[in-house]
Amino acid sequence: MAFLSGLLTIGLLLLLTGHLFSIAWLQQLQNDAVIAAAVMFVLIGIMHLATPRKLTYMIGGWLPYALELVLISGVLEIVFGIGLLVPAVRIYAACGLILLLIVMFPANIYVAVKQLPAPGGLPAKPWYTWSRLAFQPVYIAWIWWCVR
After folding, report:
1. Backbone angles phi, psi at 85, to 5 degrees
2. Cα distances (angstroms) measured from residue 146 to each of 37, 61, 93, 108, 114
3. End-to-end Cα separation, the chain, in angstroms
4. What is the mean pLDDT of the segment spanning 73-91?
5. What is the mean pLDDT of residues 85-106?
6. CB neighbour list of residue 125: distance below 8 Å, 6 or more residues apart
7. Distance CA 145, CA 148 (A)
8. What is the DSSP letter of 28?
9. How do residues 25-54 score in pLDDT, each as one tens digit?
């Protein structure tokens, strides 16, 4: 939900900036949504790289090379996030992010089933860890809508 809050906040701030300063490109919600997604995925990717050991618990019990997988996912989030900003590769970056979200979904299921704390010190309450699963399709839809 923190990710969704970031997407919405950044997107709305960009839209408001576009209207306040008469920047036509930022007055288009789809452009703001692309930038918001790029920023959020780059930030999340940086978090994966800065503190990878804090995230290995999500996959450490059932996949080998947990640290390496966290690092790889962080790099991919950054690369695909930046790719959203490059029109020539935007659709490929979006497909990469969508695939990454699908591949990472089992880790979120694992966290919910095992009643582990959500990443980043977010609540470990079952209502929160299970509700995070409902937002994964929202993020996929957001990315797809941005590039269509």
Report:
1. -85, -5
2. 9, 35, 11, 24, 34
3. 24
4. 98
5. 97
6. none
7. 5
8. S
9. 999 999 999 999 999 999 999 999 999 999
30 exposure class (CB count in 10 Å sphere: 0-12, 13-18, 19+) = exposed
**Residue from 135, 127, 129 nearest 111 by CA:** 129
Q: Which amino acid is at 127?
A: W
- Mean pLDDT throughout 121-147? 88
* Model pLDDT, residue 146: 92
Sign of CA dihedral 141, 121, 71, 114: negative
Single-letter amino acid, residue 74:
G
Rounded CA separation 17/3 (Å): 21
CA atoms in the 13 A half-sphere facing the CB of 17:
11
Coil, strand or helix at 122: strand
Token digits of residue 75: 């790099």
85 has which bridge partners?
A: none
Where residue 115 falls (left for φ over 0; alpha for ψ -120 to 50; beta otherwise) is: left
